[in-house]
Amino acid sequence: MSHDLASRIISHSLPRRERFTLSRRASLGAIAGGLSLWASPLSAASDNEVFRGKTIDLIVGFPTGGSNDLYARTLATHLGRFIPGHPTLVLRNMPGAGSVSAAAYMAASAPRDGTALALVAPTLPLDERLGTSPARFATADFGWVGRVNSLVNVIFVRSSSLQSINDAFEHSARLSATGAGSAITIYPNALNYITGTKFDLVRGYAGSAEGMLAVNRGEVDGHCTGWDTLKTSHPDWLTSKSIRVLVQFAAKRHAELPDIPTALECARTPRQVELMRAIVNASDIGTSFFTTPHVPHERLTLLRHAFDQCMNDPHFQADLTTLRVGLSPLSGEAVAGLVRDVHHIADELVPDLQKAQMVLTAG
User: Fold this and answer.
1) What are the tens digits of pLDDT across the range 127-160?
2) How far apart are CA 163 and CA 210, in angstroms?
3) What is the CATH number of domain 2-149+286-343?
4) Domain extent listing, the chain
């Protein structure tokens, strides 16, 4: 399954709607050497009828090719086995406005019966708390199903550019970036505003795939993206040391990046630490999936239980290992708690966080 699965899932030519049926899962299983017995139904026969014969749309607020898209496609391949009634999952990429378009669709237009799941930028709860989101929806009202992995973003540059994050306080470096609501843009802008680094963002790229292509073409010096995205998209850059990772956006250093300082370590005052901690909360929300508001509680419970089972499935785990991405699952209830925590950010921090957002909105 290794190379064939990776190339099939990562391929940029994949259509926006792709069906992941049980027969497709069987094909993948044949490559892997066979599947174990499918999971038993979760509960009583009446529960099994809830999703039987249904199609679940999996909305991805990002273009194809990045780690978010990869996680969603892998989840779509496996999750149906654990949902009572074994529904078909259909993937739909819906990029736009830093994934705000996908979140707005889920809030206003998607069916509220559990037949729509979504993955969007983990920074949206902060945007909502600060009132800087271009859309009006309550992220705490979404039915949070669970997290596949925490999301550690990094800033990297070509090896001929800055030599360390300390250099970024004295010299500028051009980074490719997307829209104002994306972590690709939010993180370096916040670092600039809060700590005084001098990254120069060149906005307008559709996503990390285009942003990293700009690095390869020499249009910019570097890019901010997920560590998983960098590992899966350009492992050769890491092995050849043609790029240098400068900083990681997380509360503590990632196990695979023990020598790379966190954004919190770049802070020079207690106030800066508080502000950066509020910003990097998104790394804990990470790659979290949710359904629409007001889904009946029993259906949300079914989805959460199925998601938890999927996270423990050896076939799902093996596919993630093959694709060189991480797994650090969190329950839907715990993710919902993280989202609520964002809404409880101290009022005294809000003006400075809003100013950081205003810098990137006007930039």
Assistant:
1) 889 887 766 789 999 999 999 999 899 999 999 9
2) 24
3) 3.40.190.150
4) 2-149+286-343, 153-282
